[in-house]
Amino acid sequence: MDQLRRGTTIAAILKVVETEPMYAYRIIQILEGRSRGLIPFPEGLIYPTLHRLEQDGFLESQWRTEEGRRRKYYAITADGRRRLTEEEAALRSFTTGVLRLLGDGVDA
Amino acid sequence: MTGHRAAGSAPSATAMALDLAARVDCYLAELARGLDLTREDNFQVLDEIRASLLDAAEAHMARGKRADASVELAVTEIGSARQLAAGFTHVYDGRDTREALLVAGLPVVCALALRWLAFEAGGSSINWSPLLRPGPFLAAAGLLLVLPAVPFGRVKLAMAAWTALWGISVAFVVLG
What's the rounded Cα separation, in Å, for the pair A61 and A27? Predict the structure, then answer.
């Protein structure tokens, strides 16, 4: 379950920054909006995950100052896009498998 | 931070901002105590969290919450400073270990290369005598000596590993 949770968090973060660079607080807001409480994304988990993704080369960052506040913007890298594709495929496959197990309208 | 307020009067925007900043600084101080990172990483983590807490507190205030309640909510949402610090330390530990291994491994590789190139029986692998001329030799040795002090975060750890492995490497070359 930890692996699934980690994969979900990584895919969700990469998906949010797929189209434009974003700072952590905004990423968290979007994640909360998208998940509508169905999947909890504890903030304390998001920040270290962002740093991990940056260290692993899936994200790159840039500091910007807006209205006197320094914000760290994260952008997806080419490796990040590849990782996102992999994580999405894995999650879709897993979800399909679970729905099949539950007999929930997915053909065998 | 509230002593400058007149009793019974509504807090000014400046006073509220100061209160908010003070509570955020308090959280950041606790976070900083738990972080075991390089100075630069520390600074960047604290800056990022400060911006997020202020953003979150301002969002709550915009939804009608009082300043003190807003900042408390922001702190609650981000979670325990100790746990957050542990999360960051866990992430950066891996990188520091990789750096330390790189620094420590470098002299071993150099020593093995030196042994193969210069100390081959009869010195026949290459014409190695130019390697021992004082100028180039000292330049190469000096470069290797200062390397660990330049780009690596955990200098103390790297230096300890580097010194130990240099000692082993030299012993290996001289005695081997």
Answer: 13
Q: How far apart are CA B77 and CA B66, in angstroms?
A: 16
Yes or no, beta carbons of B48 and A44 under 8 Å apart: no
Enclosing H/E stretch for B48: helix B39-62
Q: Does A71 touch chain B (CB under 8 A)?
A: yes
Cβ contacts of A9 within 8 Å, gap of 6 or more: A41, A45, A46, A49
Contact A72 B51 (CB under 8 A): yes
C-alpha angle B77-A42-B60 in degrees, rounded to nearest 5: 30
The predicted-structure confidence for B48-91, as pLDDT tens digits, reads as follows 999 999 999 999 989 998 888 888 999 999 999 999 999 998 88
Residue contact A25–B91, C-beta within 8 A: no
> Do strands A59-66 and A22-23 pair parallel, antiparallel, or not at all (unpaired)?
unpaired
CA distance B173 to B176: 5
ipTM, two decimals, is: 0.85
Q: To the nearest whole angstrom, how far is the Cα of B33 from the nearest Cα of chain A?
A: 16
B47·A45 Cβ contact <8 A: no
A88, A82 in Cβ contact below 8 A? Answer: no
The sign one gets for the Cα dihedral A87, A89, A93, A95 is: positive
**What predicted TM-score, i.e. pTM, was given to this entire model?**
0.68
**Minimal-distance CA residue of chain B relative to A69:** B51
